[in-house]
Amino acid sequence: MHVFCQFKYPKVILANIACGLLGFNQYAILSSIRRVINPRFNLTSPLSSGLFYLAPGAGFLVGSTVGGKVSDVVVKRYMRKRNGQRIPEDRLNSSLVSVLIILPLGTLLYGWSVYHRLGGMALPIISAFIEGFGLMASFSGLNTYAAEVRPAHRTAVITGKYVVQYSFGAMSVGGVVPMIDSIGVGWAFTVITGFSMLAGVLVLLIARFSKNWKA
Prior knowledge:
By secondary structure, the protein is mostly helical. Helix content is 82%, strand content 0%. The protein has helices at 2-5, 10-41, 46-51, 54-81, 90-93, 96-115, 122-148, 154-183, 185-209. Its main location: membrane.
């Protein structure tokens, strides 16, 4: 129960919801690949379609690496502005470009390039990489923030984050393919882009306005 007690703090629950919305995006692309890529490119072999997972996977790898380095740079910059004072929200500032620009761009490109059959196989691969990059770069700041926002209760906060994040992931796995079947892959990923933008708004809200919130 100590894990769920952390949800009463606005900083914690809003960051958890942001992670959940990003998790929805992550599992949307992973669970939809075989459904939309196989018929799009007439792939019949599981190995052939499986290779497509390398695109978002590479984005995850590069995004987590670059996101971590950018996060450290941004934190040091804000510390210099405050004569050495450090606050957890500095980590979130490093995620804003990724969650508000890079991730939505990659998500929209992926959905509509597949829907309109644009760019051969290259454009969906590139857009899946961009989406994966944006996801992990966004998670980089949020994951560290979860560990820093309530240091005395770090384990409970992080555990709660993953409960919310993977609950959203489960909803994505169960709901994205039916949504694609209902409204098409382009509009489905437009909806998912909206979820990602909402995550960005939550991150911006915490980063800019949570200084005096209960934590």
